[in-house]
Design brief:
globular, alpha/beta, RbsD-like fold, RbsD_FucU, D-ribose pyranase, isomerase, RbsD-like_sf
């Protein structure tokens, strides 16, 4: 046990977050997402499992340690529901509220069409799969800097 770190934080997740640098991205995905195949294509090649976490819970845990990037147009993204465009579902609204609270001034959250999300997640640093059951409950977080 370490002081000041949420006891739900796993060693694998902490390791991935520590190895990420400014501008690296991590995908937080739901239980339907092709997580293993996507993670294999990432920089770390690592899939981190967070069983028992909703996507917003996982994002809150991660954002307690990971600074979001406010020096780019969007420091985080959510996956759009097919055919709906940038119309957030309740799972998105919950996560966006957390990311907005954690985002430094000047930062923003964007959305990505599903196939664009898949492509971007494959180019990221790693993948965190939670047990989120709500469809399209997938997000990307971009690591910022601490000033």
């Amino acid at each position: 046990m370490l002081k000041g770190i949420d006891p739900r934080m796993t060693a694998d997740l902490l390791d991935v977050l520590m190895r990420m640098g400014h501008g690296d991205e991590i995908a937080v995905v739901d239980c339907n997402f092709p997580a293993h195949a996507t993670a294999a294509d990432t920089i770390s090649g690592q899939l981190v499992e967070l069983p028992g976490f909703t996507a917003p819970n996982a994002i809150e845990l991660i954002c307690a340690l990971l600074p979001l990037d406010h020096l780019v147009p969007e420091g985080g993204f959510w996956m759009e529901r097919d055919g709906e465009g940038a119309k957030p579902d309740p799972v998105h609204a919950e996560a966006i509220a957390i990311m907005t609270r954690e985002m430094p001034e000047g930062g923003a959250i964007g959305s990505l069409e599903r196939q664009a999300f898949y492509a971007r997640a494959r180019e990221g640093f790693g993948v965190v799969r939670c047990t989120e059951t709500r469809a399209f409950g997938c997000f990307i977080l971009r690591k910022g800097v601490i000033f």
